[in-house]
Amino acid sequence: MSNAILSSCSAFKLALVQISIGSDKSKNLERTREKIIEASRNGAQVVVLPECFNSPYGTNFFPEYAEPLKGGDSTKMLSAAAKEANVYLIGGSIPEREPSGKIFNTLTAYDPSGKMIAKHRKVHLFDIDIPQVITFKESDTLTEGDWLTHISTEYGKLGVGICYDMRFPEMATIAARKGCMAMIYPGAFNMTTGPLHWELLQRARAVDNQIYVAACAPARDNNANYVAWGHSTVVDPKGNVVATCEEKETIVYADIDPEQIKSTRQYIPLYHQRRFDIYGDVSDTVEENQDGQVSKK
Ligand SMILES: NC(=O)CCC(=O)C(=O)O
């Protein structure tokens, strides 16, 4: 992708809502709604929520908190809040129960009229085993998604992934080459992998692809079974951390400016120097449909 595709993009103010999540779903929803409105009052035009914002994070909680997307309390709240706040809303993720009974870790996104404009199911499930340190197996109760997702907004296209998806560079490379200005990851790293890789991965995805990268986490609850790292962060196309925070409840704001992407690509012209004659272009192996869903050709 060249810089030409970015000519239709424009700047916007992004907000990452790092909220405290408890066991009471209706309180989680109400608190989240208030924070979306607060972000909008502070000038945000695109608001992002964390992974699993309506429920504690854990394989035992997913079946208990799962909802259908159609008519579910969480999607109803998200749609109404996007409309009330007049923002694009990347609604973190929730455990989604589909009619077959399968449960997915699903992100939904809304335009400022409240219309649902995208649905992304976590593609790479968080299954890790570091003996005596951390073992987690999302696949015990979740099913993985089958497509990548690029969201069209009036500011330009935004790629999304959910947490562990951040570790797979192909997703961000495909998004960048298909014209996305940013990769946005609702996430919930933990006290082991958070300090190790949370910021590093975001900076890596940004530098490799010369795009913005943002990751939105829940606030830390030291009494939870799974203790989240927090540190919601925005990285610019040069790899600089332009906005971040610690572990407490807060909102992180950053300006996303396509001119920064253009100038980074002009000064370090990776986009024209790739050797696809040697190693091929991964973005050529997939196609994007009109709903922004990307799958193998
Ligand atoms: N919720 C997740 O996918 C956690 C991913 C994580 O912590 C990691 O290290 O990767």
UniProtKB/TrEMBL annotation:
Any one Gene Ontology BP term: asparagine metabolic process
Coiled coil: none
Family annotation (SUPFAM superfamilies): Carbon-nitrogen hydrolase
GO terms for cellular component: mitochondrion
Keyword set includes S-adenosyl-L-methionine: no
Key words, A-Z: Hydrolase
InterPro entries (alphabetical): C-N_Hydrolase, C-N_Hydrolase_sf, Nit1/2_C-N_Hydrolase, UPF0012_CS
Top-level taxon in the UniProt lineage: Eukaryota
GO terms of molecular function: omega-amidase activity
Residue ranges of every copy of the CN hydrolase domain listed in the record: 12-258
PROSITE patterns, A to Z: CN_HYDROLASE (PS50263), UPF0012 (PS01227)
Listed PANTHER family: NITRILASE-RELATED, OMEGA-AMIDASE NIT2
Family that this chain belongs to: Belongs to the carbon-nitrogen hydrolase superfamily. NIT1/NIT2 family.
Name this protein carries in UniProt: CN hydrolase domain-containing protein
Organism for this UniProt entry: Parasitella parasitica
